[in-house]
């Protein structure tokens, strides 16, 4: 093999490994669940056909409180608040 090919293969491989390592690190930095990373409010799921096809293991979300939109990892969903029935007064 020529020296040029070895040089390109080694540095190309290092470049690809750097991209792979950054992708893995950023994946684990993303929060799990449906809470906003800015204000910790529950987010709404947004249908984005492109992102949902490319990365189905992430969910596209939007926060109604602060307007943040981005990707979150799938995880536990915040339960909806339950409304209790008003107590009736007995006389």
Note poorly predicted spans. Answer: none
Widest sheet, order of strands: 1-2-3
Order of helices and strands: HEHEE
* Alpha-carbon distance between the two ends: 97 Å
Fraction in beta strands: 15-25%
Whole-number radius of gyration?
A: 23 Å
Overall shape: it is: rod-shaped
Profile the largest sheet: 3 strands, antiparallel
Tell me the number of strands: 3
Helix content: 25-40%
Structurally, the number of domains stands at: 2
The overall average pLDDT, rounded, is 86
Q: In terms of structural class, how would the helical and strand content be classed?
A: alpha+beta
Number of helices: 2
Folded structure, characterized:
The chain is of the alpha+beta class and 91 residues long. The chain has two domains: 1-29; 31-77, no CATH class. The protein is 36% helix and 15% strand. The chain has two helices and three strands. A three-stranded antiparallel sheet has the order 1-2-3, with no helix packed on it. Strand 2 and strand 3 form a beta hairpin. It is rod-shaped and about 95 Å long. The termini are far apart.
């Amino acid at each position: 093999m020529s020296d040029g090919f070895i040089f390109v293969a080694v540095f190309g491989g290092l470049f690809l490994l750097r991209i792979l390592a950054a992708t893995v690190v950023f994946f684990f930095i993303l929060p799990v669940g449906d809470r906003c990373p800015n204000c910790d409010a529950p987010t709404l799921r947004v249908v984005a056909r492109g992102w949902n096809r490319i990365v189905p293991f992430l969910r596209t979300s939007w926060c109604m409180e602060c307007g943040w939109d981005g990707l979150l990892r799938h995880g536990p969903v915040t339960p909806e608040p339950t409304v209790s029935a008003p107590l009736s007064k007995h006389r």
